[in-house]
Each structure stands twice: as structure tokens, then as C-alpha cells.
Amino acid sequence: MHQAEDHSALLKLSSALLYAGSSFLITVLNKTVLTSFRFPSYLCVGIGQMITTVVVLYAAKKSKVVQFQDFDRSVLFKMFPLPLLYVGNHVTGLASTKKLSLPMFTVLRKFAILMTMILEVYILRKTFPKRLVYSVVTIVFGAVVAASSDLAFDVQGYTFILLNDAFTAASGVYTKQKLDTEGLGKYGVLYYNALIILIPTILASAFTGDLHEAVAFEDWADVSFTFCFLLSCIMGFVLMYSIVLCSYYNSALTTSVVGAIKNVAVAYVGIFVGGDYLFSWTNFLGLSICMSGGLVYSYLTFNSTSSAGKTEEAQELKS
């Protein structure tokens, strides 16, 4: 029993680290594609990531590497409302990435943690120890302190990011709920989520003129841009997989907090890279408060897992 618990603790930690790493990388990649190369369509970046997810998982299913149920009418009912939440999350996330500087993007993303905690209480009927609640409040307080110094205030950008927080929270909680659905599992949730929303997103992109702008983009022949775009598509799949994996082995809230710690790391990098960060000590202090709250949460969460394993071992020795 002790070995199984250790294995579980390792899976929890490794899935969290995979999510943090892939999330960090894709934020920088998306910022590079949309801002540095001035690619005009954040929708088309999302479409590329969805197509990659569908192709990779379809090939894996055909070659018997992974298993999930074939498509039928029941899949739509099993997946609802996840695809709608994912569209909202993806579009508002990419739009806010384009509108805001990296540090302010990462600061305002912290409100998704508080929203996730509230939704887990109401939808999944979870309860949280006071120490975890305090650490989450510390993260959000740090975000408020950091955001108070934003001299590059953008109403549209702030609206997108707060909507993104709400979609992220709801998507995380419902993903955790859907992972236990018979016939779907981790890979089914990922595959059908991307497949269901792919065609509507392409139609929306064509209708708004986004698709035309993307096709007409002049830098497709630029090797460095094409490489960054393709890498963004691949990392989009890796990110979606890592989110599902982290939620599966941990909780939607832990996934959200791990994302917050990653975001503070991105903010620190943004001080030196990107050129659109206006440094202030207030902002820096807020980021540091966020990081402190996130590290305390992580310590409490992952330490309790290993403590549970030691307790079970002690009980086994006594019996």
C-alpha cells in the first residue's frame, strides 16, 4: 500500500510540473507569434492547436496506443458544457495575451484561482482547510497589489482576462467532473473537446475575416515564424493534455495554483524579455506576494500527500 501511495505522490507532482513547464513555454510562444511577429489572428493560433490535438489523438487511437469510445450522439451529452467553456477560455486567453503585457496578463490570471475554489465548493461539493484558503487569498491579494501599479491600463484587455479567468475556472472544474464519465477518460475528453469546437471556430474565424488575414500573412515564408507557429500548435496539445493530467491526479484548484506559480515566473522573465513591461516596486512586491502564497499552497498540498503515505505505512506496521 505504501508503494502505491508513493507512486501516487510522484504522479501528482510530475503531472503538476509538466503542466507548469508546458504552460510557461506556450505563453512565451503565443506572445512571440502574436506580438513579436505581429500575426493578426489569435483565433487561427487556437485552430492550429485544436487540429494538432485531433490529429495526434486520432492517430494514437487508430494505432491502439490510447482508447476511448467511438463518436455517437451520447458523446455530445457527456461532454456538455465543456466545449463551450473551452472555446470561451481559448479565445479570451489568446485575445488577452495580445492586448496585455506578459506581467499584467499573469497577474490578472490569479483571479481564476479564487473562482475555481468557489466553483469546486458549489459544483464538486469540496471543502478546503483554512490554511489552503488563506494561501489562495494571499495569491489574489498579491495580484491586486501588483495590478494597482499598472500604468498601461487597457479596458478591453482587462475585460478579456477577467472573462478568461471565469472560463478557466469553470472549464477546470467541469473537466475534473467529466474525467470520471464512462467511455471518455482523459483522452476522450481531450479529443472530443477539440473535435466538437473545431468546425464552429473555423467558421467564426472565416466569418470575422480572421482566416483571410491569417492566410494573407506575409511571413509564412519566414522559417523562424513558421517554426514558432508550428511549435505553438504542438505545445497547445501538450498543454491541454497536461491540464487534464494535472486535474486527474490532483484537483482543478491545484492545477489553477500551479498555473499561477508558473505565471509569476513568466512575469519575472517579462521584466527582462518582451520590452512591454513598465517596472515598479509595487508591481514587483505584488508578484512576490503571489509567489509566496503559491509556494505555501504547493507545500501544503504535496506535503499532505506524502504525509498520508507515511501515516498509512505506520498503520500497516502496527496491524
UniProtKB/TrEMBL annotation:
<feature type="transmembrane region" description="Helical">
    <location>
        <begin position="132"/>
        <end position="149"/>
    </location>
</feature>
<keyword id="KW-0472">Membrane</keyword>
<feature type="transmembrane region" description="Helical">
    <location>
        <begin position="9"/>
        <end position="27"/>
    </location>
</feature>
<dbReference type="InterPro" id="IPR004853">
    <property type="entry name" value="Sugar_P_trans_dom"/>
</dbReference>
<feature type="transmembrane region" description="Helical">
    <location>
        <begin position="279"/>
        <end position="300"/>
    </location>
</feature>
<feature type="transmembrane region" description="Helical">
    <location>
        <begin position="252"/>
        <end position="273"/>
    </location>
</feature>
<dbReference type="GO" id="GO:0016020">
    <property type="term" value="C:membrane"/>
</dbReference>
<feature type="transmembrane region" description="Helical">
    <location>
        <begin position="155"/>
        <end position="175"/>
    </location>
</feature>
<keyword id="KW-0812">Transmembrane</keyword>
<feature type="transmembrane region" description="Helical">
    <location>
        <begin position="187"/>
        <end position="208"/>
    </location>
</feature>
<protein>
    <submittedName>
        <fullName>Putative UDP-N-acetylglucosamine/UDP-glucose/GDP-mannose transporter</fullName>
    </submittedName>
</protein>
<feature type="transmembrane region" description="Helical">
    <location>
        <begin position="220"/>
        <end position="245"/>
    </location>
</feature>
<feature type="transmembrane region" description="Helical">
    <location>
        <begin position="39"/>
        <end position="60"/>
    </location>
</feature>
<feature type="domain" description="Sugar phosphate transporter">
    <location>
        <begin position="22"/>
        <end position="298"/>
    </location>
</feature>
<feature type="transmembrane region" description="Helical">
    <location>
        <begin position="107"/>
        <end position="125"/>
    </location>
</feature>
<feature type="transmembrane region" description="Helical">
    <location>
        <begin position="75"/>
        <end position="95"/>
    </location>
</feature>
<dbReference type="Pfam" id="PF03151">
    <property type="entry name" value="TPT"/>
</dbReference>
<dbReference type="InterPro" id="IPR050186">
    <property type="entry name" value="TPT_transporter"/>
</dbReference>
<keyword id="KW-1133">Transmembrane helix</keyword>
